Structure formats: structure tokens, C-alpha cells
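User: I'm curious whether this sequence folds into something compact or stays loose and floppy. Could you predict its structure so I can see for myself?
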Amino acid sequence: MKAIFKDNISYEKQLIEKGLDEFLMMENAGIELANFIKKKSKKFKNAKILFLLGAGGNAADGLVAIRHLKKAYAYALGYKKSTMFIKQEQILKNMGFKFLKKQPKFKDFDIIVDCVFGSGLNKALDENLQRIFQKIAKSKALKIACDIPSGLGKELCFKADYTLCMGVLKEILLEDFAKDYVGKIKLANLGLKLKNKNLQNFLLEKKDLRCIDKKANSNKGDFGHVYILANKSAGTLAGLGALEFGAGLVSLVAKESFSPLIMLKQDFSQNASAIALGMGLENLEVLKDERLKSIPLVLDANCFSSPDIKAYLKRDDVVLTPHPKEFSRLLSFCFNKNISVEEIQSKRFFYAREFGVNFQCVLVLKGANTIILQKEKLFVVNCGNEALAKGGSGDVLSGMIAALLGAKFSPLKAAKNAVLAHALVAKNYTKNKNSFDALKLIKGLKCL
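Assistant: Here's the prediction. I'll summarize afterward.
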């Protein structure tokens, strides 16, 4: 897991307390950037490298990197220079470095490095910089952003293949709107790795995955009996997802299924280990059933169209799995506010936390970077991709979470591991992403 921070402030404060001043942190940042560029330039013959420079700390990091690379080009965009920038600029000039005086032809470069703005930008990019970024986006150069792609979260920004995040992983890089612009996120060490026991926000990685561990001396009853309350198609997908992820028994409360592996029942048992419900389910009267009070639950899909869902939000053994539109409905039930999908997508962390502060259940806010939250604990999975943008993917996920609940995983642990596994299957799919579907997702669980 990697810790997630809103910004660098608390991290840099700790570094200063440990004896690292601003100049040394900048030097370390520039060295890290230079080393990363060297590594990526190996695939080019005599790589031609261009730095785009603003005039603040982000640009100063770039100037340090240029000094350590020794062979690079730099184009300064003419903004008012900070003291840090001026100092690093003078060092380079004393070494005989020449800055480009006019805008270069971006197609002539193999690597373009964005050191224009860091995380402090609070306004849209000027028209000249927007035009430059549009030209760069059309070039075949490898694009690297220093810390944060300039303009991220604005209408137009630098589109990176890699973002080298300085010091700590910033939350903004994991917003859904950032997915198409940050590329692969890498972390640079500014001098010290600090441990903070009070951290609550983490990015989950492949190595964090924990699945059901089946011993040789075990039977199907040891791994739970999961019930699915859904329609035929969605319910079968959820049921197969639960089976392939390790559930001992799976029953679908429906008249038929398209798989012989799923048992059919007329009703659920109060002895169910876990229940996933709502997927394509038209009659939601079951939400009023008193028998559900003692069973761990996954509530999905149509559940978010019923105000009866409010009765489950104070339970810590319930997992909710809304996509943004369903989450918008849920927020309207909870807070009597009409919050649009667009507003949610622009501030997913904010609205997830606002929900978590008020309720005990586990929230899985699905998206390009899925957020898993319970109270103050928050986790993000960003290794999924567009292959999951297919009908049925969410149904499979509900079954997977239910499988782990049935195997006695805590609700938060069940949600974290199911979401991570779900994303990793999509990541592992090497064929055309358009050909991925829910059945391939289920099949892919075998390969984790």
C-alpha cells in the first residue's frame, strides 16, 4: 500500500524537522527526476529531451534535473520568476547552459518534461499554454509530468505518459478526472521515508491482495453459503463471481439461471453466510424483511432507487456498491440534496468522506479509480481500466464481495480485496479491451 496525502505540506514539514531544508529537498527532487528520465531515455538512440519550464518550485526541480542530465533543452514560458527559479537558473547559466529563445518544434523531441506548474495552480491555463499542450499531445514524444500534470482538473491540461510524484502520492492524481492525464504514477523520494502511524488513506497495490485460503482438510460448508437476490442474468453473473472467488455454496433466489453451477431457491435462508441483492431486482420489498438484520449484506444497483436503503446505512456489516449516478440518488436520500453526477465526479473524495463521516457501512464508490471507505479509513484502487466499462462487471463484483463476507472476511477487508481482484483481472487482460465482458472477468479470476 502507498499512503495518500492531500498535499506535500505535512510531509515537507516532517522533512524539515528531520534536518532537510528546502534547497536539499529540491536537489533531491531534481536528481530523482533526472534519474527517471535517464531510465526512460534508454529506449531512444541519443534521446532529445525538452523541459517546459514555468517559474516556481516545479520549474526549479526541472532546472536541477537539467543540471544532472547535462544534455537537455529547456524552454521557459516567461512567467514571473521565483527566487528558487532564479538561483537554479543562474547555476545553469554559469555552467554555460543556453535556454531556447523561441518556441521549439515539439515533434523534434523524444521526451518532453512538464515542469510548468505544480499543485498550487488554482486557475485555468492561459491560452498560449493551452495551445502548447495541444501541440504536445499530438506529438509522439514520451511525456513526463513533474509532480502533477500542469492544469490537472482544469478544462485542458498536460497529458502525461508518466507522472513522477514528488515526496508523497497526492489525492488529486487519483480522482477519476485525472485517469486519462496522469499516465503511470511513480513516486520520488525527497530524502527520507517517514512512517506515520496515523495515516488513514492508502492506494492498494497488487501485493496487497488477499483471497480465500482453502486448506486441504476443508469442505464447501467452511467457505459460506452466499445467496443472490437478483434477476436471472445479473444474478447468475453475481453468483458465478462468488463461486470463482471462493464461495462454498451459491444460491440464486429466482426461477431460473443460465448456469448449472448456481443453485435455485424460492427464498433466502436466515442461515445465509452473506447476501448480495439488488442487481436487476424490480421488487425491493425485501429491504423491509426483518430477517436481513442478522446477515452481512452487499447492496447494489436497484437498491439505490429505494429510500428503504437508509435503514442499512448505520450497520457496519453492510457494503454498498454504487456507481456515481446511484451514489447521487443515495446522497439525495441521506442529505436531502440534489448533487449531480458531474459534481460528484469532480470531487469524489470529498463526497465519499462526507458520506463516511455520517454512516457506519462500507462504501464502494465505483469508477475509474474506485474508492473504498468506512468511516475515516479510505482506500483507492487505480489499476482497473476501461475494459470494466461493460454491463455485468458490477454484478460480478457484488458476488465477489459477498463471497469474502461469507468466508468471514470483515466487510471492509472483503470490499478492499474484491475491488482489487476485480481491477487486476481487467489489467491482466491483454487482448482488445472492447472484447472484455463479464464472463471473461469471471474466467480471469482463476488466474489471480
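Summary: The chain has a mean pLDDT of 94. The first strand starts at residue 2 and ends at 5.
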